[in-house]
Amino acid sequence: MHNVTGAPRVSTSKRRSKLALIAGLLSGLIGPIAHAQTLPPPPVSPAPVTDYEYDANGNPTKVIRAKGISGFNFATTNAYDKLDRVKTSTDARNGVTKLGYDGIDQLKDVTDPRNLVTSYQRNGLGDLTQLASPDTGTANSTFDANGNLLTRIDSRNVQGTYTYDALNRLSSAIYTQSGQTALNYAWTYDQTGGDFTNGVGRLTTATSPSGNTKYGYDPEGRLITAIQTVGTTVLTTRYGYNDAGRVNRITYPSGRVVTIQYDAGLPVSMSLAPNASGTAQPLISDIQWEPFGPVRSWQMQMTSGTKLQERVFDQYGRLVRYPLGAVVRDITYDAADRIVSYTHLDATSGQSTAAAQAMNQSFGYDELGRLTSIITPANSWAITYDANGNRTSVAINGASRGYTTATTSNRLTSISNPARGFGYDAAGNTLSDTGMAYTTTYRLDNRLGTLSRSGLTTTYQYDAGGQRVRKENSAGLRNFAYDQDGHLLGEYNATGPVQEYVWLGDTPVAVISGTVTAPLPLLVYTDHLNTPRLLVDKNDAARWRWISEPFGTGQPEQAPAGLAQVVFNLRFPGQFFDSESGLHYNYFRDYDATLGRYVQSDPIGLDGGINTYSYVSANPLGSVDGLGLAPGVRICVNGVCPPPPPPVSNPDDSRPVTPESDFTKPSPLLPRWNWDGVVWPDWMAMATKPPRVTDPAAAAEHKAYKDAYNQPPPPNQNPCEKLKWQLAREKALLAARMAWDAKWGAHHPEAIIQSGNAIKNIEAKIRNTPGCTCP
Questions:
Q1: Cβ proximity of 287 and 269 under 8 Å
Q2: Exposure on the CB side of residue 695, measured as CA atoms within 13 A
Q3: Are 620 and 144 in contact (CB under 8 A)?
Q4: 749-767 and 719-744 helices, crossing angle to 10°
Q5: How far apart are the C-alpha atoms of 262 and 241, rounded to whole Å?
Q6: Is residue 707 helix, strand or coil?
Q7: Pairing of strands 295-302, 476-482
Q8: For the chain, how far is it from start to end, CA to CA, in angstroms?
Q9: Which of 463, 488, 681, 470 is nearest to 572 (CA)?
């Protein structure tokens, strides 16, 4: 049985869910559209299969990828103690991770495959009072009776002191160290009037050493204004919403306006106006979506009409073809679901021309999915790793470089051929790199403060949410503004906008360079990770191109068609290239593509992986890290954040799944996740944690409304009756959440907003259903 692309349709997979299979089958039935019909079918990759084995108690004991297939059969094995706690985990290369527990089942220590030990000390309430890490040293913390973090002293002897208001909302964070000027943050709530519309019960001002941001909301609690002040620069972003509660209008700090049209809850077109009263011009249109999932195609508005940008997915939901301007790229996967090749065809003729073949790449991996070989028409790479994923060697075209990692940590100390050395502070931050020829200083809140290179010193500043809002040196400054989901909205210098970005979910679809009066709109082609690879102007001329190897080395072409140079600094998702350092700013950390790793240890510790410096577990073709925290963690899409991946080092996580465990978008400046067992290095530590509720009556009431919500609908309902039943259920849930929070504390503010949006969505569906009226 075949679909319309000519690919064999596979009817089952142990790895993919039934929903993913249904999505793939629907995709196959719909088939590719427009110009894709002139191309041959994409290569067919093996079905991805993962097998799971369990013991008599239902504990997963073995996970096997591509079981029984020659050259694969990669197994990870867990062993348990008598209390069903994981005591060892053995990976496919026989690396063993050991876990120890205290007398009340709390994780006490983790021994990694290199025998490095991370230890945890907790009090009787589970608060982490001491963390001892081989990479970041020892940190000691104290907590109040509600479980709020009060103080934390890190391995640099910097003390963070935190205060809270009567509702246990974080009010201040002060960082001090002997002989240093204190670093102060403050959060203010409930302000009203002026810029603080509908501020009661919400964060209204966040103050940092760089300045402050003021927030205004609509009556439903949705953010409508963010006024960011850095020094004397004020950047204001405004949002509008449709009746279903979705953002349909963004006014950028320059005054430009992006308008978004929706159909059935999904964006279908985007337009751009120079200001609030200006005429909007189409930017992209006819946006099509895969069943249950990602964007499939859209039309780019060109000077002479529209041009299709289309992606093709296989029956397992994997992206197998996408355009890159003059060529289309095909992706082939192996039996372990790893990308093993990029091949290219001329987009017009569908032929494998010499120019298309020059972009081909092939890849190899070890048993843990770490990238070990890269072959292009011009170069070949061979990479080896130690048991923790630290590089031990890299051979480029046969010339080998040796990597040396400290015996007591995962800190890279030196590279040979040519010689390159690294220095660190006590918290594991890179202070010097002789190869890149820079030195750094770090702020008291453990963020990169200054970087000096080639006689130029650049200073970096951050807002109260951890976003970098300014960099400045003697050559000039850049201010940065972000949207609600953490995407970069724009760069601004002392005179105005430099570039502003337009996003479709996590995909950058356009960038507007230049001033408001003389703009240069450019349209973006991205790869399967949403990394920008090509910019074209409205005449379809290539203006910028970046065809790098997988770890992101190599500089882009800034004038591939011989036109005026275009500087564009977006890189992997969540990253921004800094020319002054050669590093990629990645939200909470900085990435060095020449090393394939971060220059700081992971702020979330082992919850981001067993190696706290690794970038996406050394598989940059298969994962992203939009926040610089953990593989697979992405910036939110359409207001919804995906849950973090299961921590490899903390299998005792037993957080319950409830109607509140939906990872809805949080308040603008508060952390997206509070992961168990994590002490954050700055203000994020327990910032939004409400008072601990221990009263059994609270738990009983919580369970009662969850059970009521989870009741199945009555049988044999027609569409209108089912919608009305859903509406009544959502209203009951909203009332129950509000009543519970009023009685026991504000645990569910974002879930309450989500309930309100759900009610509006259902009411809209009722209005659009013939013969159906809202009760």
A1: yes
A2: 9
A3: no
A4: 160
A5: 11
A6: helix
A7: unpaired
A8: 48
A9: 488
Tokens 């205290």 label which residue?
Answer: 102
In this structure, what token pair is assigned to residue 651? 């299998």
Task: Tell me if 97 sits within 8 A of 89, measured CB to CB.
Answer: yes
CA–CA separation, 741 and 754 (whole Å): 15
Query: Is the CB of residue 650 less than 8 Å from the CB of residue 676?
Result: yes
pLDDT digits (tens, 9 = 90+) for 548-578: 999 999 999 999 999 999 999 999 999 999 9
Kind of pairing, strands 468-473 and 456-462?
antiparallel
Place of tokens 């099509």: 288
Burial 424-439, CB ≥16 within 10 A → b, else e: bbebbbbeebebbebe
pLDDT single digits (tens) 658-675? 222 222 222 333 322 222
In tens, the pLDDT along 363-391 reads 999 999 999 999 999 999 999 999 999 99
Q: How many helices (H) and strands (E) does the chain have?
A: 5, 50
- Helix (H, G, I), strand (E, B), or coil: what is residue 691? coil
CB atoms within 10 A of CB 773: 9
**Could you tell me the two tokens for 344?**
């290219």
The pairing of beta strand 257-263 with beta strand 266-273? antiparallel
The C-alpha atoms of residue 517 and residue 521 are separated, in whole angstroms, by 12
Residue 296: which pLDDT band, with cuts at 50, 70 and 90?
very high
Residue type, 195: D
Cis peptide preceding 32, ω within 30 of 0 = no
Q: How many Cα atoms within 13 Å fall on the side-chain side of residue 228? A: 30
State pLDDT tens for residues 56-83. 999 999 999 999 999 999 999 999 999 9
Q: Could you give the angle at the alpha carbon of 597 between the alpha carbons of 491 and 419, nearest 5°? A: 110
pTM here? Answer: 0.81
Do residues 524 and 509 lie in contact, with contact meaning Cβ atoms separated by under 8 Å? Answer: yes
Task: Give the model's pLDDT for residue 767.
Answer: 79
3-state secondary structure 78-105: EEECCCCCEEEEECCCCCEEEEEECCCC
* Paired strand residues for 423: 432
What is the chain's alpha carbon radius of gyration, rounded to the nearest angstrom? 26
Assigned domain for 701 exists: yes
Residue 743: which domain range?
696-767
Taking residues 170-191, what's their average pLDDT?
96
What are the start-end ranges of the E strands in 527-573?
Answer: 532-536, 542-545
Which tokens belong to 25? 């089958």
Pairing of strands 247-251, 257-263: antiparallel
Smallest Cα–Cα separation from 210: which of 231, 228, 227, 226? 231
Structural element, H or E, at residue 21: helix 18-30
Residue 377 maps to a domain? no
- What does the DSSP assignment read for 118-156? EEEEE-TT--EEEEEETTTEEEEEEE-TTS-EEEEE-TT
Q: What is the dihedral of CA 463, 466, 470, 474, to 10 degrees?
A: 120
Alpha carbon of residue 347 to chain centroid: 31
- The answer to whether 411 and 613 are in contact (CB under 8 A) is yes
* Residue 19 CB neighbour total at 10 angstroms: 12
Q: Who contacts 114 (Cβ-Cβ below 8 Å, separation ≥6)?
A: 386, 387, 388, 410
Res 540 pLDDT > 60: yes
- The set of residues, in sequence order, having a beta carbon less than 8 Å from that of 714 and lying 6+ positions away, is 721, 725
In a domain, 494, yes or no: no
538, part of any domain: no
d(CA 465, CA 345): 44
Range 446-470 burial, b when 16+ CB lie within 10 A, else e: bbbbebbbeeeebebbbbbbbbbbb
Q: Among all chains, which residue has been given the structure tokens 């809805």?
A: 664
Q: CB neighbours of 31 closer than 8 A, spacing ≥ 6?
A: 3, 4, 5
Confidence of residue 723 (pLDDT cuts 50, 70, 90): confident
| pLDDT in the model for residue 431 | 99
Look-up: residue for tokens 């020059």? 358
Report how many domains make up the chain: 1
